Amino acid sequence: MERKKLLILGGSFYLLPLIEKAHELGVYVITADYLPDNAAHKYADEYHNVSVIDKKAVLNLAKELKIDGVTAFVNDIAATTAAYVAEKLGLNFQCPYESAVILQDKGKFRKFLSDNGFNSPHSKRYDDVNAPMNDIDYFDWPVIVKPTDSCGSRGVTKVEKPEDLPSAIKEAVDNCRNGAFIIEDFISFKGCHSSADSFTIDGKLVFNVFSDQLFDVNSENPYAPTQIIWPSTMEKKYQDELTSELQRLMTLLHMKHGIYNIETCVGSNGKPYIMEVSPRGGGCRIAQIQKMAYGIDLIENEIRQAVDMPIKPIDKVECDGVWCEIVLHANEGQYGTFVRYEIDEKIKNKYVKMIDFQKKPGDKIEPFSGAGLSFGNMFVRCDDRQTLNKLLADMPNWFKIITE
Questions:
Q1: What span, in angstroms and rounded, lies between the C-alpha atoms of 160 and 43?
Q2: Global pTM exceeds 0.85
Q3: Is the peptide bond before 367 cis (omega within 30 degrees of 0)?
Q4: Rounded to 10 degrees, what is the CA torsion of 276, 247, 242, 271?
Q5: SS3 193
Q6: Strand runs labelled E in 75-211
Q7: Could you count the other beta carbons within 10 Å of the beta carbon of residue 147?
Q8: 3-state SS string over 16-41?
Q9: Comparing C-alpha atoms, which of 260, 193, 270 is closest to residue 237?
Q10: pLDDT tier at 296, thresholds 50, 70, 90
Q11: Cα(300)–Cα(274) distance, rounded to whole angstroms?
């Protein structure tokens, strides 16, 4: 029997679990982007050099290859292209192309939320870098300035006063592709921000969990997450309300089958907010650690839905212990040439379940300005949150990056 063909847009090392699972299922894997040296390409069955934001070029490639499915998975910038190709070829995807366009543009998504009665930060989308100076009184300061189409927290700046807006706008524009940016009221969190992967079948949210997303205030980018913990400490009433609102969103946007990376929070005003919903798996191996924590393989189901294989049923389960994804990164004093890392063997044997370290001796260690400048991930498991908190607080003593 001829193997199913899956086109994966992107080449990040975060795609390796997807490629490995696809091969286990007997699926032929094709990767595509414009960076031939990206890690995932050498594990694929075939690679093509094409820009993942060039929708027509990717569509022509997909027609030529006669693919059975397409996915962007961890690649945020490729999600709309994947939706476009799937729609043109009658293939499965999480949502219609029109819905993907809304989800992948922060300004359009905020407007959609507001127009449909969801809690949403007070925000406005701009194409003109000078226009916001006429809207100073429109916002409740401080504000956040963001590119509309970037990922990995690149180009995001908190602005305390209007005179600092121009530099923040420049940072946002320098980190986007379409030249557009949004300004929105800064939301103070009640508890922690959440980032997790969810899954729909026939538009029904069949798997939805929440996490505690933590940030390193000492890093180059204090808005790039450095630790993600399951289960969340968010109050159940907020989890239930957000789940209900997410299902309403899925219905309004005509969602189908597939994985989504979803970011939510509860404001200090007591209102729960849907911050981002992207029709692809999250970076930082979120789906992989959630499989270890919950026993639900969203990666396998994402492949199955993409190439039209039967999706495995998903049952409601509890988290097995307390799990943390640590995004390995450097702070001041650790920049330079990587020599090695050191880890306490007792800690490693008792708590560490996976280390994916991407740097080799001689590689450059740079400031952590976004998710793309991490140098790997670590999964740890504890029996309770108190033990995990102590472990994380003591991490500088049991895990060290040696540079020169």
A1: 46
A2: yes
A3: no
A4: 80
A5: strand
A6: 123-126, 143-147, 157-159, 181-185, 194-201, 204-207
A7: 23
A8: HHHHHHHHHCCCEEEEEECCCCCHHH
A9: 270
A10: very high
A11: 26
